[in-house]
Amino acid sequence: MTEPAPPPSGPPSPRIGTAERDAALAALDAHLEAGRLDVEEYGERSARAAEARTAADLEPLFSDLPDPRPPFGARPAAPAPAAAPAPDRAPATRREPGALARYGPAISGALPILALVLFLTVPIPNAWVFFLLIPLGGWLFASSRRDGR
Q: Least CB-packed of 6, 37, 45, 143 within 10 Å?
């Protein structure tokens, strides 16, 4: 029978919130736009960032990338006390990204290959219409990102 692993040395990694996950996703967006990540790797890393619970979960996502990086585990300065919300207004709720926003980059990257395979294998007249999947997928992905911001 094996013995349980000893507890990790040092303090545990601090838990992160929505703001830290959003900062990580924004940094990944910047790396995608700069061409440092391809669409598939961006999709994998952004899914892991969206599911991260601690700062240690985010650190490996940026280990091979230059700045911009989110501040890992840094405690932000205490914000000034906010005024109480107006009683007649309901507090805003944060919407989780949908499946299209989460998997859209990978789907958009695969659409040209899918269109080419369909064009070459499906024996119909005017098979070129399969190439219309490419701009359609780009439009769907862009609209899902616009709705989420």
A: 6
For tokens 């992160």, name the residue: 16
H/E element, 18: helix 18-33
**Rounded-to-10 torsion of CA 57, 61, 63, 64:** 170
**Tokens read off for 91:** 């507090």
Q: Which residues of 119-140 are buried (b: 16+ CB within 10 A; e: fewer)?
A: eeeeeeeeeeebeebeeebeee
Residue pLDDT, tens place only, 44-80: 998 898 898 988 888 888 889 888 888 765 544 444 4
Residue 106: strand, helix, or coil: helix
Bridge partner list, 15: 54
